[in-house]
Amino acid sequence: MARFEPELAPGETPPPASVHPRDATKDAPTSVGRFNQTIRDFVSAWGSVWVEGEITSWNLRAGNVYGRLTDPDSDASIAFRIWGSVRSRLADDLKVGDHVVASVKADYFVKSGDFSVIVSAMHPLGLGDQFERIERLRAALYAEGLFDASRKRPLPFLPQRIGLITGERSDAEKDVLRNAELRWPGVRFRVEHAAVQGERSVGEIVAALELLDADPDVDVIVIARGGGDPLHLLGFSDERLVRAVAAASTPVVSAIGHENDHPILDDVADLRASTPTDAAKRVVPDVGEQRAIVQQLRARATLRLTQRVQHDIAQLEQLRSRPVLRTPDALLDPRVHELVLLTARGRDTVDRRWDAAARQSAELRAALRALSPGATLARGYAIAYHPDGRVLRDAADAPTGSALVVTVGRGSLAARSEGELAEGPSAATAGD
Prior knowledge:
Layout: H1 32-44, E1 49-61, E2 64-70, E3 77-82, H2 84-87, E4 98-108, E5 115-127, H3 129-144, E6 162-166, H4 171-183, E7 189-193, H5 201-213, E8 220-225, H6 239-247, E9 252-256, H7 264-268, E10 271-272, H8 276-283, H9 287-320, H10 323-326, H11 329-371, H12 373-378, E11 383-385, E12 403-408, E13 411-416, H13 427-431
Parallel strand pairs: 3-5, 6-7, 6-8, 8-9, 9-10
Antiparallel strand pairs: 1-2, 1-4, 2-3, 4-5, 11-12, 12-13
C-alpha cells in the first residue's frame, strides 16, 4: 500500500520531522501533527458526494455558515461548513428543519482533529419529517389555546423554594444555581435530575415535573438544558411533556438551549427564558437591586416626611404670629365685664322668678286649704256614711237601727240610727 506523504497547503508550516504513522512504534512514535496531516491527506483524496438529510443546526458567523446535517432515520449527523462565496449562490430561505440534498467534500482539521464536510451546493427538498410533525403539533396545541397569554401564571416575586429539572452534573444546573445564588444568596432549590435527550428524557422529565408539582414548598419549576443540536431538543417538543406542563399547578419556566432554539415547551410554559442563566435572572430577584430600591424608597419617604414637617412648622409659626394667638388676653379682657353683667342679670332674673313662684304657691295652698273637706270638718261639721262607703244624704236612707260611720274633724266613730227626727236642727244650729 502506498504511503501518503504530507502535502502542505499554501503558506502552511511543515510539521517537525517525525516517524511516518505507518512506521510508528512505542519507541519511535509519530507526532500528533503528522498523524493528523496524514489523515487529512487521505481524506482530501476523496471526491465530492451528494448527501441527503435535515438541517438541524445553522449558525452564521463572519459570513460563513456552520451547521449540521442529520439523517432522520438513523440519527446519524455530520458537521458542515459553507463558505461565504458558496452561500451567496444558495437559496436565501434555508433554515433549521429543511430537508436538503447537498454536494459535500470531506475535510479534516489538522490542529483540532475535527472532521467535517465542505458544502459546494445545497438544494431544499422540503421540511424535514420530524420538524414537520413538530409544526403540526404546535399548530394543534395553539388551536386548543394552550399558548394563550391568559393561561400564563405570574412568577412569585421571591420563591420559597425553586424546583429545578436538569441533567445530572450539567452546565445548565451549574449556571442556574450559581447565578441564582449570586442574585439572592439565601435562595433554596430542590433539584431533580433527568435525562435531557434521548428516549428516556420525556418520561423522566415528566416524572420529575409531577414530583415537584406535588411539593407544596416549591413555588416555581425551571426545566433547563444547555444548547446543542436541535435534534437533541426534540424531546422538549413531545406532546406528553407539553401537556404535563400545561396541566401543572405550579408556574413552569422553560430554559432550553440558546436564543435561537424554540421547542414547543417554550410556548406552553408560563415563562420562556433564553438560556439557563437567563432563567436564574428571571426567577430570582437581585438582592443588590432590591436593596437599592429599598434605599430609594426610604430616601423618598424621609424627604416627603421632612417636607411635611417643615410645612407644618411653617404653618404653626404663621398661626402663632397672629395677634389673637400672640396676646390671647386682649381677646378675653373686653369680654370679662360683659360676662359679669350677664351673670348679675341672670341672677336677678332667677330671683324674681323664684319669688313670684313662691307667692303663687302660697296662694294655691291657701285656696286648697279653704276648699279642703278637712277644713269644713274642723269647724264642727260631720260626714255620715254607710259602712259600704255610701255618703248619707237623706235621713230616710238611715231607718232605725241602721249602722253608720260618722267622720268628724278628728277621726271617725261608729253610730246607729234611732230613726228620723220629727224636726232636725237647722244648718245654722248644726254649725254652732
